[in-house]
Design brief:
By secondary structure, this protein is of the alpha/beta class. It folds into 2 domains: about 180 residues, Rossmann fold (3-Layer(aba) Sandwich); about 170 residues, Glycogen Phosphorylase B (Rossmann fold), CATH 3.40.50. About 45% of the residues lie in helices and about 15% in strands. The chain is built from 13 helices and 12 strands. Strands 2-1-3-4-5-6 form a 6-stranded parallel β-sheet, with helices on both faces. Strands 9-8-7-10-11-12 form a 6-stranded parallel β-sheet, sandwiched between helices. Helix 1 crosses helix 13. It starts with a strand and ends with a helix.
């Protein structure tokens, strides 16, 4: 099929790295690996921080809708519209209209529906998400939480499961040489959930500062100064500030580390957890949101109760103290991702979903 791909929150070509951008790129590659031709239909970003801003975005989207309509009318119509991560702050202003006009199926991936927004000024945009999910040929959900949320809100929707995945190619030839006490985290430094996770990590590590750990921090962003202040009380040499790194460098840094530590406050699922496990690191995270979809507690890492800083610190300490358990989990983590969460496996699964729900090959 010829697939028009659209990500209203952040284009796969956006210059700023993020989990959203990475998953958009991975989905495109999975679709291409299945033999489909994929074009990014539009670079238009529909994200709005308020209902007032959303109304302005709608006006700006009108000309882009007209451009797409003209292209399709000229014989450049795709076989399918694939929208990644629509939600009330980033509705799809094009897909539902064009699919209805031109008679092609619409597919969503990682659509989310938040019932509490129905009683707010976001209600009209929430309603559009509900209608899109209801009318889609299929809605692909990466986590049980998202799928169950859609099922409760829109019982008539067609929903299929696809486990979060990564491109494991860079990890398959890696020979990890972990330094036993080297912890590592990879995360952007921005306000909100990321900052909350950094704060929790710093507080947890402060309670086990008697143990011989060091922490490598890969990441950068507008809150870097604030993040550095969170760790300022630790003695010199405890933290290694690596800044933003390319994908190949991150693989190597993971390969020489022993435990991946990131609390994951509000984490949708966290592709970084899969990357860490592919490099042979057990992860220590909270048992919250979508994190259990990418880490198997007790097997590939330890997931602690949400908000329990003492338990989180204890889990890190447990793996630092028990080399045998750490190695066992590291091996299991690597097997899990390489065998079950690769791009090739996802490509096969997503192709089967599209064929089943759209009737097209």
């Amino acid at each position: 099929m010829r697939i028009a791909f659209y990500a209203p929150l952040k284009s796969p070509n956006h210059p700023v790295p993020s989990g959203d951008r990475l998953m958009a790129r991975l989905l495109i590659r999975a679709l291409q690996m299945s033999g489909h031709e994929v074009d990014v239909a539009s670079e238009f970003r529909s994200f709005a921080s308020s209902p007032e801003a959303a109304a302005m975005v709608e006006g700006e989207a009108a000309s882009e809708l007209q451009r797409l309509r003209a292209e399709w009318s000229g014989g450049d119509k795709p076989d399918l519209w694939f929208c990644y991560h629509p939600y009330y702050k980033s509705v799809d202003p094009f897909g539902p209209t064009l699919c209805a006009e031109f008679g092609i199926p619409l597919v969503t991936a990682e659509a989310s529906y938040s019932p509490k927004r129905n009683q707010t000024d976001w209600a009209p945009y929430q309603a559009r998400i509900g209608a899109m999910v209801r009318d889609a040929a299929v809605n692909i959900g990466f986590t049980r939480r998202d799928r169950e949320g859609l099922e409760r809100a829109i019982p008539e929707a067609h929903i299929a499961a696809l486990a979060p995945f990564i491109d494991t190619a860079a990890f398959e030839g890696l020979q990890p040489v972990p330094e036993p006490t080297r912890l590592i985290t990879v995360a952007m430094m921005r306000a909100g959930d990321k900052m909350q996770s950094y704060a929790m990590l710093a507080e947890a590590l402060a309670t086990i500062r008697d143990k011989p750990w060091t922490l490598a921090i890969v990441g950068d962003g507008p809150m870097r100064g604030e993040v550095e202040r969170l760790f300022a009380a630790f003695e010199r040499g405890r933290t290694d500030w690596l800044g933003e790194r390319g994908a190949d460098d991150i693989v190597q840094e993971l390969g020489r580390s022993s435990i991946y530590v990131w609390p994951g406050c509000g984490e949708a699922y966290g592709l970084a957890y899969l990357e860490a496990q592919a490099a042979g690191l057990p992860v220590v995270a909270q048992n919250t949101a979508g994190v259990p979809e990418v880490a198997q507690t007790g097997a590939t890492g330890l997931l602690t109760a949400e908000g329990d800083i003492a338990a989180y610190a204890s889990a890190i300490g447990e793996l630092l103290d028990d080399a045998s358990k750490r190695t066992e989990m590291a091996n299991a983590a690597r097997r899990f991702v390489l065998a079950e969460r690769s791009l090739a496996i996802a490509a096969k699964a997503i192709d089967e979903i599209l064929c089943r729900y759209t009737g097209r090959q």
